Amino acid sequence: MAEVTAPRGPSLTDVATLAGVSHQTVSRVVNRHPNVSDATRRKVRAAISELDYRPNAAARWLATGRTHSIGILAGELAQYGPSSVLMGIQDAARSAGYFLTVVTLKDYSEAAVDEGLSGLLNHGVEAVVAVTPHVSALEVLAKVQTSIPMVMVGGGGGIDGDVSLDQEGGAARAVEHLVELGHRRIAHLAGPLDWVDAQRRVDGWRRVLRAHRLGDGALYQGDWSARSGYDAGMRLDVSDGTTAVFAGNDQMALGLLKALRERGCSVPRDVSVVGFDDVPEAEFYEPSLTTVRQEFHDLGRSCIDALMDRGARSAADAGPLRLVIRGSTGPALPH
């Protein structure tokens, strides 16, 4: 059988010939070197576009020792929050001249985390971002030492370079809003408590209740899904004076709204509901959902800034969380 070979694509030399510049000049443009005039850069880019030249990553790695690749160690990308964080990191990385290599964890054991990190390092990544919201994975990562920069999203300071959004503060703002509306018995529908974000949101809820001497409200357990929100809504005890629920994410709030509607409870007249995340559909819920907005792209940019050693290493750097008030919250009615 005859050997089949792929046709040779245009080379760096072909680009240099068409642009009328040296091979080294084309290399500087491709590698974003600053010492190239704007006119020359435009000429080279026009030649690259005309020839549809694609740099050979393997050759560039051998020549420069750099892959311009950032590794992502990820889990639970089916959830809105982690997937949105990944998109934010990807946009920021692309703007900085990097692309992503993603490894998803099959579980959160020490062996799985070690295997994932080894896979990324074997691909020559220059840095790692861990988007692993589970407590067990974060505990393993807190002990890891690597020769390349690593940041951890939402790790609570376990690793140098931790980049977080203020989950506790965002939750507290949601509950303060309910208190300001006159609600005194406020329940919480929490996400899985092996997630750091879920723990922080519980902390924020409790902090506000205690600050106002309201006592502990009822705590219901969900798994981030609308189904778990619906199930919790069917169990919600309103006979104890509960007039508001802070849901740990918008999907659970969606299920909660459906359950309350089926039970004949009017939202917000009988029960006010606040969510968390501000998913794109939140304003189209019935009623439209009051929720806490997370700026995931700001978080992604903070991750890349931290890796570039620009000092973005705190919750404030990642941007504040903002309460978006819509139709699902209203004043508490006297009982």
TrEMBL record:
Pfam families: LacI, Peripla_BP_3. The keyword ATP-binding does not apply. One of its GO terms (molecular function) is DNA-binding transcription factor activity. Residues 10-64 form the HTH lacI-type domain. The keyword Transcription applies. Transmembrane segments: none annotated. Keywords: DNA-binding, Transcription, Transcription regulation. SUPFAM superfamilies: lambda repressor-like DNA-binding domains, Periplasmic binding protein-like I. PANTHER family: LACI-RELATED TRANSCRIPTIONAL REPRESSOR, LACTOSE OPERON REPRESSOR. This is LacI family transcriptional regulator. The lineage of its organism: Bacteria, Bacillati, Actinomycetota, Actinomycetes, Micrococcales.
